[in-house]
Design the sequence.
């Protein structure tokens, strides 16, 4: 895109208005990534802001042959993984609580959806987010990049500085963990077990 | 087929890369394995939720908040830069004193001639430029103005030039002093 290239060039020369255009364009994907990874709107806001500030500082390192969105999302991904690793000790103890009491109400419903549908969607959203928080950071990132950004295994591997086979196995395990978590939370029928499993 | 292989085929099915012959084999396994059947149901449900989950936007005004933070950050950096330059200028202003204390100063053979020149020309120019330099940066730091890369390069060059003048002028002054002492 010519205008985007132009914005990037001008932002590189210190034009903050041009950079704001880039923020406007990519705020939703960047914020969503942070929100899906961190699970908290305030933290996501802070992480998304930090992502853009870093991008501004590092703009001279951006290689124009790469997609700008991919470069930006990679910055967001690294930052979120860092944040999650720093709080790694707490997520293990939090996951149970989050699953039981997912307090988030979800994105605002469009004008055409009826209230009942909106409530249902909000509930499902909260469940999805609660399920995501049961995953370790690397797994969560693979799921987020795969489902919200439609990236191929190759693209995810590139973005997370990993290999295709590692991404594949991460996704494999992540999906299974999500399925188990959904079963345990009673969101889907439980697997039949030979005796002694409480309903 | 065992459950492990069925698990792998389920992933291919979710990615849409399962070939028809494998579809049939997987279905056959699911028909007679309730554990895999339950897992497959859960996997599909999760797949469905994830596939329908929207991109969540930030609260309104996000771009403005980033712009404000960026502006604050840049202002801080400029202020820092201005202070460094001011410190350098101050150091420069006191350089003759430091030089006098720290360095033995050799005399130039043409000291007397240049001394005259220095008295009437260079020293005046030097003090004027130094004053301008300090004033410009004090102003820039105080008013929080961006000087730009070119302006900084120009001022940097000026700084070096002044440094040269400074030592020249000092040599002359000390030459003067030595001529007069005996
Ligand atoms: Zn099985």
Sequence:
């Amino acid at each position: 895109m010519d205008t985007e290239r132009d914005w990037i060039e001008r932002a590189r020369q210190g034009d903050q208005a041009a950079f704001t255009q880039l923020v406007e364009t990519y705020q939703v994907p960047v914020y969503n990534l942070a929100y899906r990874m961190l699970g908290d709107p305030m933290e996501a806001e802070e992480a998304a802001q930090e992502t853009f500030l870093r991008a501004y500082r590092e703009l001279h390192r951006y290689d124009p042959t790469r997609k700008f969105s991919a470069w930006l999302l990679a910055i967001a991904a690294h930052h979120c993984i860092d944040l999650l690793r720093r709080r790694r000790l707490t997520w293990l103890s939090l996951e149970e609580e989050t699953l039981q009491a997912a307090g988030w109400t979800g994105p605002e419903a469009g004008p055409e959806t009826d209230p009942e549908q909106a409530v249902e969607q909000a509930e499902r959203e909260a469940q999805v987010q609660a399920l995501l928080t049961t995953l370790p950071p690397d797994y969560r990132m693979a799921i987020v990049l795969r489902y919200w950004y439609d990236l191929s295994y190759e693209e995810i591997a590139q973005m997370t500085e990993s290999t295709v086979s590692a991404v594949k196995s991460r996704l494999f395990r992540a999906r299974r963990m999500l399925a188990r978590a959904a079963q345990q939370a009673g969101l889907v029928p439980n697997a039949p077990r030979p005796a002694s499993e409480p309903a | 087929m065992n459950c492990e292989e069925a698990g792998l085929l389920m992933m291919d099915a979710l990615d849409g890369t399962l070939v028809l012959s494998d579809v049939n084999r997987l279905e056959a396994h699911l028909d007679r394995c309730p554990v895999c059947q339950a897992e497959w149901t859960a996997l599909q449900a999760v797949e469905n939720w994830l596939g329908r989950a929207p991109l969540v936007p930030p609260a309104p005004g996000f771009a403005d908040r980033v712009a404000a933070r960026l502006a604050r950050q840049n202002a801080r950096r400029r202020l820092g830069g201005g202070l460094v330059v001011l410190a350098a200028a101050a150091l420069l202003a006191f350089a003759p004193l430091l030089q006098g204390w720290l360095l033995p100063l050799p005399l130039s053979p043409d000291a007397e001639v240049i001394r005259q020149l220095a008295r009437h020309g260079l020293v005046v120019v030097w003090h004027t430029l130094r004053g301008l330099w300090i004033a410009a940066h004090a102003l820039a730091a105080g008013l929080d103005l961006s000087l730009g890369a070119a302006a900084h390069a120009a001022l940097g060059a000026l700084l070096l030039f002044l440094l040269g003048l400074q030592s020249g002028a000092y040599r002359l002054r000390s030459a003067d002093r030595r001529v007069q002492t005996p």
Notes: Chain B has two domains: 3-52, 80-180. The interface with chain A takes residues 7-8, 11, 14, 34-35, 38-39, 41-43, 45-47, 49-59, 62-63, 65-67, 69-71, 73-74, 146 of chain B (CB under 8 Å). The helical segments of chain B are 3-15, 20-32, 34-52, 62-102, 111-143, 148-180.
